[in-house]
TrEMBL record:
Gene3D superfamilies attached to this UniProt entry: 3.30.450.40
Annotated protein name in UniProt: GAF domain-containing protein
Occurrences of domain GAF (ranges): 276-402
PANTHER family listed in its UniProt record: GAF DOMAIN-CONTAINING PROTEIN, SLR1143 PROTEIN
Amino acid sequence: MSALLAAAVFIARPFMRLWASWRQQDLSWMPRPAGTPHAVADGPSADRVLIIGSGPAVGWGVASHDLALAGSLARALRTMTGRGVIVDVIANPEMTSANLAPIIGGARLSDYDAVVTTVGINDALAGTSPRVWRRNIRLALEIWRNRVAQGNLLLLVGTTSITSIPTFVGRGGWFADLLVRRLNEITDRLADPLPTARTLPLPAVPSPEGASGRHTPAHYAAWAAVIAHELAPALDLAFSEHDSVEGRRRTRAVDRMTSGIADAPELVKLLQGAQASLDKIVTMTAAAMNAPTALLTVLGPDRQWHVARYGIDLEGVPLEQSFCAIAVRNEETLIVPDAPHDPRFATNPLVTDVDGIRYYAGMPLQDPQGRYFGALCVIDSRPRNITTPSDLSVLRKLATAAQSTIWGAIFSDGGRVAHPGVPQDAPTSPVDLRRELLATPA
């Protein structure tokens, strides 16, 4: 049967590609996420997941990754594990199996507890032969096996039925479905011997809206539930095998930035184009956290820049005095209730000065390359014995807004960016602002 299918694919490939190209024109009008390829679900000791692929990973039909597969998966996993979840996305509508090995080879796998792939729809539509598919998937799995830490999981999500998408209903779609079944079978066989890789069939979601099959948040939530059901036990096991949260962090220590990023001056200059948005975010942060001072920092090899600040005129400090550098090195939120009684900071000039720092809360930020480059933080000259989960949730949401703005500045022309997550009429009353942020889904 496989030989007959291979021969049929060879004969039909030119017609398949023409048919698929014609049918894909129906997708040109459909919205897809244009913002930061990133989603967060609040919670302690966050698991990190990377989604790579086309098809469901792209987010056809919705305008943000929070409404697409990434956000749905983050929320589903948080419900199942009780921990926070951070999901990053590497998606391209044209991605094929040939792209998978280079992406896995170039990703910072040490940053993630699990990787989810959704490739196959373009291979089926283009008539990729089973032989080529086998070669591409085998190479991707070999790279994964050589690079991944024990306990991490690669979940290869199978391609759903092509004809379940109204755009591709027809004889061409029927033939592509025959190929999908064969490609999924090959993936199952190749992944089966690897203890750190699994496959998962993805069911077709019911009745996408419209003639072109526009997916809705409910469809992504259905897919995410299936994926989360497979991921959650593996994430729980990996988490339980670490002695502590600190031990969990150490497993991600490969390639960790410890002394600032070398191109910090260039990043600081680039972010000048997003100054208005960043200033608004730090002002909102100070108000929401009821703090006199808020900063957005970038760390260089020997200096901390304050690229946006509220309640302070200081443009920067030496790196050795930086609180944010500790948050960045740990890749975790840093809370310092009373700095003079913390041995890490007791002799810091920023602490020993008159009206020096007593309280600090900072959330590290990442650039699109996965490097931790700085933090969003608040500072107070009075100690605080309690930082509530609500405080952390507010700070995390504002840090996510800051990171999205920074990514937009990096990818935009000249850094001119307006972040949609910070409305122009955002409340400035601390009570109203906290209420709005806490009511916003993560």
